Each structure stands twice: as structure tokens, then as C-alpha cells.
Amino acid sequence: MKYLYLAGPIEKCNHDEVYGWRSYVESKLNSNIVPIQPKVLNSNNSKEILNQNKKDVLRCDIVLSYIPRKIESRRPSYGTIFELSFAHSIKKDIILVSDDKYLVEHPIIKEISNIFSNLEKSIEYINSKFC
Length: 131
What we know:
The chain is about 50% helix and about 20% strand. By secondary structure, it is an alpha/beta fold. A five-stranded parallel sheet has the order 2-1-3-4-5, with helices on both faces. The longest helix is centred in the N-terminal third of the chain and has 14 residues. The protein starts with a strand and ends with a helix.
């Protein structure tokens, strides 16, 4: 089994923005790929949230991060960027899906991740990598 961490905006997002894309990805993955969704903790304890996210990233094989411009322009996804940075620091494969040209053209983002403009192409890549 392979584990896929699904990173993306949560704070100040509605239910569909948080779970819609994650459910779609889960429905398209090969059966040997287990998705890991971040825990939406009912906590204002940032240390608890940070530790849970780090633990989830540690146990995954690859990180898929979805950061659409619509959400990013409303409020930057600082937590997701942290998860990408942490994943890179422990040498995890990172896939970024975004239509935000400023994000995908950032030199560090380009250096640390495989970038796709849509979820379908990223899912094809993940499924072929873990077939």
C-alpha cells in the first residue's frame, strides 16, 4: 500500500471547498493507494494541529496539494504551504495542482514540486507512479 496525503486549504473554506476535491481524488485512485485527509480538529490549539499534520505527512509516500486561485486569492493557504515545506524537508514527493500563476511560477515551488494545472492529470500521474 502507498499513502497519499491530501493537502489543501481548510481555514475559512466551505464544506465543498474542503472535501469536494478530496472526495473526487479518492474516487479516482488505484486501490493500492490510501488517501490521508488532514484532520479538521475542533481545536484552537495550533500545536495540536501542527503535530497532527506533521504526523500525517511523515507517514505518507507522496503529498498532493490542491490550491485553486479562487481560494488562494481570498486567503493565502499558509498551513498548506507549511505542509509542502515540511514534506520537502523530509524528501517526500510533492505534487501541486493550481491555476494560480503566481504560485506555480514561484521559483521555490517550481523547484520542490511536480506541478499540474488540473486534478485529472495529477491523478493519472499518481496512479501510474504507484501501479
